[in-house]
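REQUEST FORM: STRUCTURE PREDICTION
Request ID: SP-0412
Submitted by: Lab K.M.
Chain count: 1
Length (residues): 642
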Amino acid sequence: MSKSAPTDVLWFKEIDRKSGAEVGGKGANLGEMVQSGFPVPDGFVITAQAYFRFIKANNLEDKVRAILEPLDVNNSQKLQKAAKQVQEIILKAKMPDELATNIITAYHKLGKNVNVAIRSSATAEDLPEASFAGQQATFLNIHKDKKVLKYTQAAWASLFEARAIFYRVNQGFDHFKVGIAVPIQKMVQSDVSGIMFSINPINNNDDFVIVEAIWGLGENIVQGTVTPDHYVVRKKDWEVTKAQKVKQNIEMVRKLGRTKNYKVPKSRQEKRKLTDKQAADLAKLAVKLQEHYNHPQDIEWAIENDKIYIVQTRPITTIKTINDKAEVNDQMQSMLSKMTKILDGEPASPGIISGKVKHIKTPSEIHKLEVGEIMVTAMTTPDFVPAMKKAGGLVTDKGGQTSHAAIVSRELGLPCVVGTGSASKKLKNGQLVTLNGQTGEVYEGEIAEEVLAEFEAATAQDTSEKLKTKTKVYVNLAEPDLSEKVAGLHVDGVGLLRAEFMIAELGHHPRALLAKKREKVFVKELAAGISTFCEAFGDRPVVYRATDFKTNEYRHLIGGEEYEPHEENPMIGYRGCFRYIHDAKVFNLELEAIKKVREKHKNLWMMIPFIRSVQELEAAKELIYKAGIRRSSTFKLWMMAE
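STATUS: Completed
RESULT:
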C-alpha cells in the first residue's frame, strides 16, 4: 500500500505485511494472510491516518499533551487519573462526519448488522524497537452502526491506557508518533478456539506443532482464564502424538445478545475439544504460515461449524538455536517408542532413568529404598526427602507440577512423573521400568546405562555463557548439599529458602526438643544449614522462609503426635504466620538461628509465609523486633499473602 494516498479504510485484501505504517502489525498480518489465501474472516482496517485526522479535527493533541507532559508516570495514582482524563477527552470528541460515513459504509459491506470484532493495532513509524503487544483493547460481538462507531473510538482511547502511557514514556516515545489502527473483522462464533505454535516453544523443536484448545471464544485462553487441552502433532506424518484433555467448566459465548462466560454443559465438560483430524488440519495451516513468513509463528485460530479460521498470527519471539541435542533426543524417543508404555502422568522433572520399582508407603519405610531405585508412592511430604536423594526416579499417584514431589525433584535433578492415579497399583516391587520425566510417561523394561549416560551428557545445559536479564533471577532451594552447585549457575540469589527440609533432617518435633531442654540442638543445626547457603551465595541475598510445616507433616517428626492437632484440611489450617503467634517459643528458636547466622553472613533475609491478615503480620513483626532483628539495607523482610 502506498504512503502517498492516505485513506480512512483499507480492506484486508488491499494490504499486506508492508502496510504496517497504515494499519499496524496486527492489521498488516491479517491482510497478508488474506492475500495469500489463508482462511481469515473478512474485514477491513480503519487506518492510523484516520485516527490522526480525528485527533486533528478535534484539536486534541495540545489538550492531551497538557495532561501528560507534566505527569510523573511512576506515581501510580496520578498515572491512572491522567489516563482516565485523556480517554474521556477522546471518547467525548466528535468523529468527523466523512470519517464516520466511510466506516459505516465499510461495515455495511460486511453484512446487515453483522457481529464484528473490533481490535486495536498500534503503529510506530520509525520506531522499529517498539512493541505494543497487549496494551490496547479488543471488543467482541459488536453490531449496529452506532456501536461500531462508539467502540472504534474506544479502541482509539485505549492507546492511552495507563500501561501504554507508562511504556511510551519509559521508552522515550512521543505519544503522537505512535498511532493506532482499528481492524474490524466478522466475528467467528467459535465452537472451539485456541492458540498454536508452528514449533514447540519449550524446546524449539521444529518437528512438532503445539495446539491448545478451549470451548467458546478465544479470549479465555489469551487471558489465562481457562486451562486448554494440549495437542502435539508430528509434522512428518500429521500424527497426534499427545492429546491431553482438560475439564472446562465455563466458556465465553454469545447468547441472547450477550457475550459472557456461561457454564459448559456437563456433556462437554470432560470431552476432548478437537478430533485428531482437526488437530492435524490446524497443524498443516501452522506449517504453511511458517513457510510463508519464513519464521515460526504464534497463531490464534477458531472453529465454527467445523470450519477453521485463522484470526491472527505473529512471529514467535523466543526462539533459540537447536543444535545436536535434537538429534540425540530423537534417537532416545525412537527407542522409547519401541517399548511398552504402562503409565501416563504429569511431567514434573525432566530426565530419563531406568531402575527397579520400590514402593514406599510412609516415611517410616524410606530405609527400604536402595540407591538408584524408582520410588513409587501416593504423594510425598518433606520427610520423604532423604529417600528422594537416594532414588533414581520418582513416580506418584497424586499431585501436579507444583506439588511437593515435583518441586523437590526438579531441585534435586530427579526425573519425576506425578499424578498417574494408579502407579501404586500398576507397578510391582522389583519391576524394571523406564520413566520419562519430560513427557510424564513410564515404560516397561530398561535402557542400558551407557545409553542413558550418553543422552544425559548430550542434552546437558551449557552454562558457559553468562546470561543477562533485566529482572533478578532467584531460585527456590531447600537442600544444603545443592547450594554450591546452584550458586554456580547464573542466578542472583535465593528467593525462597525452605526451612522444612532442614528441620525434617533433624527428625524431632521442635516442641519435643524444647520439652527435653535440647533447643540448642535445634538452633545449632538450623543455623548450620542456613549458613551453608549464605556461604555459597556470597554477597547475593538468601531469603529464608520461616517454617511452613502443616500439622500432618509435623506429626511425622519424633514427638509430633503429642503436639499436633488433627485437621480435615491442613492446607488452610494451623500453619505459617498464624502458628508463630500461637507458638512463639518455636518461632523464637528460628529467630535465634537467624541472628546467629547474621553475625557472619549479612546476605541473609527473611520471609513470613501464609499471612492471612494485617494483624497477623503485625504480631509476627513484633516477635521479630523483640528478638533483636531489625530491618535494614542488609536485612529485608518479605511476606507471602495467601
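NOTES: The radius of gyration is 29 Å.
Reviewed by: T.R.
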